[in-house]
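Reminder to self: tokens first, then the designed residues, so the page reads top to bottom the way the pipeline ran.
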């Protein structure tokens, strides 16, 4: 059994006592606890716990790595050291039922293996390559999360009956050791890739209802958001890497992979298209008018359950479903963009840019306003991408025909900030300058009649169409539709010293594609332009104290932005 661990001081002691309770011959069980550069007390707790004489009969091998290289790297190198018939993987935060190993081993023992004929055999005759169990939550965050996982387990049980569970849960699963293939180090959903690679070799992946894995850790809102975005990115990654499973020769497996996993990647986009299509056809069709009203009613109930969980608790499962598709849209879109450009967002410590001012209070955004603003951003960005999608290939072609270089331009910008930290993200735009415009000069502000700007680029800037790709940044959660202009790190230190309260303009406020400053001024050509914008940015922040004032301000700014685009007043 391999148990990877990174900063697990809260759960590691319970996991160790869970290991000693497992009913399996001691001479046949080796437990590898692999610490991946832990910075908390995980190691000390393990060493202290193992002093208990009850662990003397258990073969626990502690592998402590001082550097953090990631779960995938540790799994790959640990499996190489193992000489065993079966390998089980388990998370620290999950306790497994005491007879789990016995039940798994029995499935593998009763299943005959003929690797030369495995891929061609019928489903009922295929040998077992993967066994997983039921996943339970000790403390679900809400009724929606609990309902989701209950449904997920029932679905996996049905998939098992058809020959292959679509992935396993990292809480616990077991595989035949000789079927393990080293994973690429950027693998996201390892507990899906490992089992499905084995299924691709012609083996069964089954769910055993008598095996139970109990998740101890309660997921916070931020953890849930991060986890679901990561899983969504992994869903699209695994679609590319396991595309061979879509081959009809896999029969049931191909059908389940296409319907259960492939369709899930595109579901958020299909939901948006269905909504907009219904809205367009509603005036001329009673059926589509009914469809539109049903969608509005369902989405309203789901969103209300998210914003006001106490009052709309009965609709929490619906809200959880909508939120899941929202995160899926962010994760899959973000992964595609990062893959195209080979760039990844990063968060770094803000020490190098920490302001020396005494007053570093963070703007406290009203929670209801923050949630409403995020929903507003997602709806507007998705709708704008669909409506303006015909323009994208035309703009791309015009850029390519005029000058050499990539169509898209990416640049690191500063995002949401606090007095102690800032987030860096990669912002995307249509390229409006010649390639390598700053190669000889370094980072410089734009100037009037800037020679670096192409003819097509000048048109894109005047109409603000160069900023269309930033709608993907909005969907990913890097930016908002309306907010302060995201600044470049190259200029940040200089501007912070020259302009009072410059850094505070983005404390708690996400940068935007457009904003109060952007519709009143053009591109920055000097520090005085930036100084003037700072006043507008702080003025915008004052409007965020309530939903009513925020919505009125954002709608007005969007109206002014459309006016700037149509009149070509962008600079």
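Designed residues (571 positions):
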């Amino acid at each position: 059994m391999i148990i990877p661990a990174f900063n697990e001081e809260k759960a590691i002691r319970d996991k160790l006592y869970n290991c000693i309770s497992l009913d399996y011959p001691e001479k046949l069980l080796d437990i590898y606890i692999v610490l991946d550069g832990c910075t908390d007390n995980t190691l000390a707790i393990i060493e202290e716990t193992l002093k208990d004489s009850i662990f003397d009969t258990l073969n626990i091998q502690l592998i402590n790595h001082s550097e953090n290289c990631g779960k995938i790297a540790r799994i790959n190198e640990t499996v190489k050291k193992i000489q065993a018939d079966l390998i089980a993987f388990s998370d620290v935060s999950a306790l497994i039922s005491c007879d789990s190993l016995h039940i798994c081993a029995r499935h593998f023992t009763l299943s005959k293996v003929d690797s030369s004929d495995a891929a061609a055999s019928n489903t009922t005759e295929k040998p077992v390559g993967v066994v997983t169990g039921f996943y339970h939550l000790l403390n679900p965050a809400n009724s929606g999360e609990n309902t989701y996982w209950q449904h997920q387990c029932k679905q996996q049980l049905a998939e098992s009956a058809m020959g292959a569970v679509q992935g396993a849960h990292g809480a616990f699963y077991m595989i035949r050791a000789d079927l393990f293939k080293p994973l690429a180090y950027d693998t996201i959903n390892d507990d899906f890739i490992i089992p499905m690679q084995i299924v691709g070799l012609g083996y069964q992946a089954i769910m055993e209802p008598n095996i139970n894995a109990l998740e101890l850790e309660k997921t916070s809102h931020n953890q849930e958001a991060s986890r679901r975005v990561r899983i969504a990115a992994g869903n699209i990654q695994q679609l590319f890497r396991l595309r061979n499973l879509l081959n009809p020769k896999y029969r049931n497996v191909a059908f389940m992979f296409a319907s259960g996993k492939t369709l899930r990647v595109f579901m958020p986009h299909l939901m948006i298209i269905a909504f907009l299509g219904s809205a367009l056809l509603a005036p001329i069709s009673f059926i589509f008018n009914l469809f539109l009203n049903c969608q509005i009613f369902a989405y309203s109930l789901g969103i209300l359950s998210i914003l006001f969980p106490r009052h709309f608790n009965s609709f929490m499962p619906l809200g959880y479903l909508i939120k899941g598709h929202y995160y899926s849209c962010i994760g899959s879109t973000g992964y595609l963009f990062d893959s195209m450009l080979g760039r990844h967002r990063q968060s770094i410590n803000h020490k190098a840019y920490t302001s020396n001012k005494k007053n570093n209070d963070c703007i406290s955004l009203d929670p209801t306003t923050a949630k409403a603003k995020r929903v507003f951003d997602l709806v507007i960005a998705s709708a704008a991408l669909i409506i303006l999608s015909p323009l994208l290939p035309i703009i791309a072609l015009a850029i390519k025909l005029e000058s050499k270089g990539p169509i898209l331009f990416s640049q690191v910008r500063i995002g949401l900030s606090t007095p102690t930290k800032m987030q860096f993200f990669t912002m995307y735009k249509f390229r409006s300058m010649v390639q390598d415009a700053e190669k000889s000069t370094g980072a410089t502000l734009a100037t009037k009649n800037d020679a670096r700007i192409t003819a097509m680029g000048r048109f894109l800037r005047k109409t603000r169409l160069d900023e269309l790709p930033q709608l993907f940044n909005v969907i990913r959660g890097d930016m908002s539709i309306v907010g302060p202009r995201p600044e470049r790190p190259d200029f940040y230190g200089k501007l912070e010293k020259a302009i009072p309260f410059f850094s505070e303009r983005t404390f708690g406020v996400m940068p935007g594609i457009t904003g109060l400053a952007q519709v009143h001024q053009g591109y920055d050509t000097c520090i005085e332009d930036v100084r003037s914008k700072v006043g507008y940015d702080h003025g915008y922040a004052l409007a965020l104290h309530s939903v009513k004032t925020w919505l009125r301000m954002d709608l007005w700014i969007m109206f002014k932005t459309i006016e700037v685009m149509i009149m070509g007043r962008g600079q």
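The first strand starts at residue 2 and ends at 5.
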